Every structure is written in C-alpha cells, then in structure tokens.
Amino acid sequence: MTFPTRIGFDDARAILARVAADRRLPAERVALARSHGRVLAQDLVAAIDQPGFDNSAMDGFAFRHADLAADGETTLRLVGEQFAGPAGDRAVGPGECLRITTGAPLPAGADTVVMKENTGLDAERVTVRVPPRPGQHVRRAGEDVRVGDALLSAGQVLTPSRVALAAGQGMDRLDVARRPTVAVFTTGDELVEPGLPLRPGELYDSNRELLMGLLRADGFEPVAWPRLPDDPDAVATALRHAGHAFDVVITCGGVSAGEKDHLPELFRREGVIHFWKVRMKPGMPVLFAGSHSALDNPGSGGLGDALFLGLPGNPVSVLATYLTLGRTLLDELQGRTDARPRLRARLRAPWRKTHDRLEFLRGRLACADDGALCVEPNPADGSHRMRAAADSDALIVLGEGALTLDAGAVVDVLAY
Ligand code: AMP
Ligand code: MG
User: Fold this and answer.
1) How far apart are CA 294 and CA 222, in angstroms?
2) By the 8 A CB rule, do 115 and 61 touch?
3) Predicted structure pTM score
4) Distance from residue 184's CA to the centre of ligand 2 (Å)
5) Angle at 10 between CA 7 and CA 14, to 5 degrees
6) Mean pLDDT in the chain?
7) What is the CATH topology of the domain spanning 5-25+179-333?
8) C-alpha to C-alpha distance for 245 and 262, rounded to whole angstroms
9) What digits encode the pLDDT tens for the residues 34-70?
10) Please, is 96 exposed, middle or buried when counting C-beta atoms within 10 Å of its C-beta (0-12, 13-18, 19+)?
C-alpha cells in the first residue's frame, strides 16, 4: 500500500486537517463554568440588549440637561435616590435631581449625570460646579449589544471575555466540541524513568513530561502509558489497546528507519498511513496514521478508531512537531477556527540555512528599543539540544531551500 511520504509541511497540515475534519468530535453541553478554553460548537445570537436599560456610568446626580444655567453654576433640588438595583418610580422634574450610583437605571425625566466630584451638596441642594455635556455619563440601552446580533460563532475558542459575554446574555450552558482524549507513549529500550539509576548507554525519558506538559497547557487531560520497549509485539498490543480507548494516540520515538523502529511497519500492516516523513527540521520522520476499521468498519478490531501521531524521539523534534502538527490535529478535531497566532519578528543575528527542509529554529523573543519584536536565534540547533529549547520561547520559521538571512531580516515566529 502506498502513502504520501517526504511531503511538504503545508501538505502534511492539510492532510491532518482533512482527516480530522472527517472525524470531528460531537458537541456536548457544559455548564458555563466548565466552558473556559473550549471550542464553541454553536453560534451565539444576542437574546437581550446590553446594557439592558439606560443607566449611569458614574456615581453622581441624574438631572435634565436643559436645566443647566447658560453660564455659571446651577443648583438643583435633591428629590430622591436611585441605586444600582431595582428601578424606583421617582421621576426627575424641572430643577430636580436624583442621587444615582454607577449602573443604576436612569430615572424617567433625567437625561444626564453629573459626577459627584463635580458637585457641591448642601442639605437638599446640589450645586453643579462643572457642567456635563448633554447625555454625559449615561450608558445607553443596547449600545454594546442589540437583540439579534451575532456575538460568537462555532469554532471560536472560549476566552474568559467570550465566556463573560455569554454570561452577560444570561446563558448558563454552552455547546462546546468534546475534547479529544489523548494517550501518550514514549518508546525505547534506552529510556529510564527519572529517579532511577542510569546504566551506560541509557538516558532519562524526558519526552513524556514534555508532551504531557504541552498537552495540559493546551487544556487536554492526557494519559501517559508506561514506556514501551523496542519490541514489536509489546508495541502492537499497547497501541491496539490505546487505539480502542482514546481519540488520539501520540507516540514518540520508533518512527524512523532504524532496526528498532517498529511503528511504521505496525501501521503499514494494521492501519492506514496518511503520511510518513515531512520535509521539516526537526521532526522529519513524523508519521500520521489511522486504522482500517475506522474507515471500513467502525468499531471493529485492529487498531481501534483512534488517530495515531507518531512523533520522532528527539526531544526538540517532539516540541516542534507537537506545536506545529499535533496541535493542528487536535484543533481540527474540535472544529477550532481561531488560528494559532503567528508573529513576525526581526532576527537579532544573521542565520545561514544550508539544507532544503522547512526549519523551526529555536529562539528567544525580545522587544527592541523601537518597539519592534525581535528574536535571537539559538545556535545550538541539534534536535537533541533540549537546553536550547528551554532557553528559548519561540520557533523561528525558516522556509524551504537554502537561505542566508542578515541580522534584521523579518521572519515568522511561533511563540511557545
Ligand atoms: P528514535 O526516534 O526512537 O530513533 O529516537 C531518536 C533519539 O531520541 C534517540 O537518541 C533517543 O534516545 C531519543 N529519545 C527517544 N525517546 C526519548 C524520550 N522519551 N526522552 C528522551 N529522549 C528520547
Ligand atoms: Mg527509539
């Protein structure tokens, strides 16, 4: 069976997006308090005006602007009060004013509010020292939102401001995309759990924490499997189990061409490889697969219905492939339409790229004196150099082909 291989990065993303769109997760209704960070699965249309009524923007006195003297101070009769809360029925007549607080409904008859600080109060007489403009300090009903306005649309991420917008509409529940369940595997006979002693040739498993942290930071609740040995049967058994229990299975290691890289063969035999190897650096061997069963016979044997993303083992490859491809998959499964921000920054040092692949180089963002965003590339560009990634906070995107970039050249960056 043939599959796309050594494809361009954009093609890989397009394949991920297409496969995920076919497998879009269903919506679920959640309480507003649980909706933060989720992808909205409904359009939100305003059911009420906001503000719902004319109200005061200040603590002060509500009155009729026409009562102000042509010049000099004006004195008004204080005839009552209207605090934020249920609207009273005392209207404001000529020469009168009502004490009012921020958010209180504007009394009938009044059209303007003078702030407390610009008045003098003597018994029941209020002197307006600094005259407001007509209608000043009054928030008009519907000036922010009108009934029927389209407020949010399916696919948008529920930021705190958007959840607050929904709350302001009185909504206590929202339809959001179900979050994919994710299983995380690390593979390799050389790996040891942090805390245990190392023998010659071994190293600590750092990718599990990397992946778990990246996934959690994106709002998922990933489950980590015990590390897998480089044994084809053990790998197959574990992935079959996970494939039946999770929406997405992310592995790292074992996807290259080495004798101990068993994953490509497993997916070739039991699944469908959507692509294997992408012309990117780091992360070239990345593999994306699904199962036959999901296509031909949902729910039957094999690898289950999960989508499998096989990331290479080198830690910086895991970082780059998760941020650029893994996220695309998870975003698309939820129907997310808000793009992940890509910034533009000036290189702080020249860079020579001698290979052909698209590169995600590590770098550190800073703000130049003139306010422009700039990025310092980290010369330790090996895909095993986690320290350089830890010292950095952005991936610098360098296009395909050999490039010589001068200091000051403008590049795309992905902050992480
Ligand atoms: P592989 O893709 O399995 O050939 O692994 C590539 C490189 O990444 C090798 O040097 C591995 O030792 C290393 N590696 C693989 N998995 C991990 C891991 N979980 N933590 C740290 N390094 C790893
Ligand atoms: Mg390995």
Assistant:
1) 22
2) no
3) 0.94
4) 15
5) 95
6) 96
7) Molybdenum Cofactor Biosythetic Enzyme; Chain A (3.40.980)
8) 21
9) 999 999 999 999 999 999 999 999 999 999 999 999 9
10) buried
Taking the centre of ligand 2 as the mean of its atom positions, its distance from the CA of residue 256, in whole angstroms, is 8
Compute CA distances 262 → 231, 275, 307, 322, 414, whole Å.
8, 16, 17, 21, 32
CATH assignment, 31-50+144-177: 3.90.105.10
5-25+179-333 against 343-415: fold identical: no
312 within ligand 1 shell (Cβ under 6 A): yes
pLDDT recorded at residue 297 = 52
User: Could you give the CA distance from residue 178 to residue 335 in angstroms, rounded to a whole number?
Assistant: 10
State which ligand 1 atom lies nearest to the alpha carbon of 230: 3
Cβ count within 10 A of residue 231: 14
The CATH fold assigned to 343-415 is: Beta-clip (2.40.340)
- Strands 44-45 and 60-63, how do they pair? unpaired
Range in 222-236, 286-300, 330-344 the model is least confident about? 286-300
Q: Which pLDDT score, from 0 to 100, does residue 294 have?
A: 47
